[in-house]
Design brief:
single chain, alpha+beta, Beta-Lactamase, Alpha-Beta Plaits, five-stranded mixed β-sheet, 14 strands, elongated
């Protein structure tokens, strides 16, 4: 028999069963929960869905489908002809699910309202039609994403006026700055110096990714406990970011602070989780002498941060600001 160049069509991609759909949804939720930030979890979940459904997607925030200038996640450029179809869809809030075709692509547009923000739109497209299970999966996933965004928006509003880091119950920079400004007049009256330490614990934030979010929370708790133990109960501690902390120590001259920094960095931060990890500790210090009006809280932060950066570049565990060139 002669080969005339005809090939059999590729086998159709099997549609996911209900069991497969629920399993995929569970995996998506696990991706979202294990991420450090909500936006990273959303991106990971959408990437997993794209791979499972052999589709591409665009997650955007806008009041109309044709105005998706705020793209939160996009796996591929929009196919030709999609923009015109989106302009016909009108306001997103009028319908929750819209389907259309353009060329070889079948598109699915889903929307969800968000509190005090523009609605979220999820546009997905592939070369085969959408099943009811796939549509329900994407609707459920977008509902979860919208709920997460609602909570994230409320959380950000709380943080705007807060002086505490809610995840660690430590002061944030604004809270520590206020505490420093409250203490400085008394230190000046008593002619006492004070020191601002900026502590960097590389790898602390990544513990969530490598060990899971429960181990990440436990690592943060143990790290804070070790930092508290290294200073006096009256000294103030703040969390500046995921793995950066600030410590304000009343009194003590430069030599006493140098000894303390040496002790703190000598053994790093041992974290007793499964498996255990041993994280390094780097410190930048800035000493404020009594009655020195030029060294404000913001200036002290800048100088101590510069000392930390310079020390890490020179592979030193700790460094004072005035040692930097």
């Amino acid at each position: 028999m002669h080969d005339i160049g005809l090939k059999s069509p590729p086998p159709p991609v099997p549609e996911p069963t209900s069991h497969q759909t629920f399993q995929l949804l569970r995996e998506n939720l696990a991706c979202m929960r294990s991420a450090i930030l909500p936006r990273l979890g959303i991106a990971a979940a959408l990437t997993k869905v794209q791979e499972a459904l052999e589709a591409d997607c665009l997650l955007f925030s806008a009041f109309t489908p044709s105005d998706h200038s705020v793209a939160l996640h996009q796996s591929a450029p929009l196919p030709e002809g999609f923009q015109g179809e989106l302009q016909k869809c009108g306001l997103m809030l009028e319908q929750h699910v819209i389907q259309f075709s353009s060329g070889v692509h079948h598109a699915l547009l889903i929307c969800e309202p968000i509190r005090s923000q523009a609605p979220f739109g999820l546009l997905c497209w592939k070369k085969t039609s959408w099943s009811a299970d796939e549509t329900d999966l994407l609707r459920t996933l977008l509902t979860v994403i919208a709920t997460l965004q609602d909570a994230e928006g409320l959380h950000r509003n709380v943080l705007k006026g807060a002086h505490y880091d809610l995840s660690s119950n430590l002061l944030n920079w604004e809270g520590l700055k206020q505490e420093m400004e409250r203490r400085i007049p008394r230190l000046d009256r008593d002619c006492l110096a004070a020191t601002l330490m900026i502590a960097h614990v590389p790898g602390l934030s990544e513990t969530t990714q490598t060990h899971g979010f429960q181990a990440g929370e436990e690592a943060l708790t143990q790290c804070i406990a070790l930092l508290r133990k290294a200073v006096r109960p009256t000294d103030a501690i703040a969390r500046l970011s995921g793995n950066m902390f600030a410590l304000w120590l009343d009194g003590g001259d430069r030599f006493a602070m140098a000894e303390r920094a040496e002790r703190m960095t000598a053994h790093g931060i041992p974290i007793l989780i499964n498996p255990p990890v041993h994280l390094p500790l780097h410190i930048g210090l800035m000493c404020r002498e009594a009655n020195d009006p030029e060294n404000t809280a913001d200036n002290l932060l800048e100088r101590a941060s510069q000392a930390l950066q310079t020390g890490e570049e020179e592979q030193k565990k700790w460094r004072f600001s005035h040692e930097a060139p």
